[in-house]
């Protein structure tokens, strides 16, 4: 396995963008990267409330009476929620040209980068190995196995898209309306919830962006 990042990422900071608009722009970045017009890129942004789900998500894992839009996506993973208070990171990378690692190693690199970033902010986090034939545990978790970040990516022709969603201070009740990540018993959490339990202030969006960018080589 090779988890090194051979070259720096270009950091792009955006605000809140509707999910369909963001994915359309991401498709443009993928084609630009494929043509060599842009370098490997980490894009930070947020979305208005939306639940996205992959092609393999069973219908019973989605809300029976959704109050936010449901959007099918072409990434890996099951259903997840995006909304205010969450930091989304899209990774547009050329694995063959600059990253030089396999897709599975890419996910491990993202997990470890987020863990490093959270640790630098004072929040210990871990990754979890998925037992054979069980639902994927990809993502970033607290040591007590509450989920802080979800990861779902796509690789086509060596170019990656989609990325991760890190809970800073979202409405966690939204995760209770469906089955997050195909894990019915998963307890979702946020930095705000963890900070409150320790009597601390929640890290700002800017602080989290800077920590993640540094850990992933996009500072």
Secondary structure: elements and pairs:
Layout: E1 10-16, H1 19-34, E2 41-46, E3 50-53, E4 70-72, E5 80-82, E6 86-92, H2 95-99, H3 103-120, E7 140-141, E8 147-156, E9 159-167, H4 191-197, H5 205-215
Parallel strand pairs: 1-2, 3-4
Antiparallel strand pairs: 2-6, 3-5, 6-9, 7-8, 8-9
Report on this structure:
This protein is of the alpha+beta class and 219 residues long. The strands form 2 sheets. The protein has a 6-stranded mixed sheet, sandwiched between helices. It has a 3-stranded mixed sheet with strand order 4-3-5, with no helix packed on it. A hairpin with a 5-residue loop joins strand 7 and strand 8. Helix 3 packs across helix 5. The two termini are 24 Å apart. 39% of the residues are buried.
Estimate the helix proportion, in percent. 25-40%
Q: Which descriptor suits the 3D outline?
A: globular
Could you give a short account of the major beta sheet?
Answer: 6 strands, mixed
Rg is 16 Å
Order of helices and strands: EHEEEEEHHEEEHH
Strands in their spatial order, largest beta sheet: 1-2-6-9-8-7
Structural classification: alpha+beta
Low-pLDDT stretches are: 1-6
Quaternary arrangement of the chains shown?
Answer: single chain
Report mean pLDDT, rounded to a whole number: 92
Distance between termini? 24 Å
Number of strands: 9
User: What is the tally of helical segments?
Assistant: 5
Query: How big a fraction of the residues is strand?
Result: 15-25%
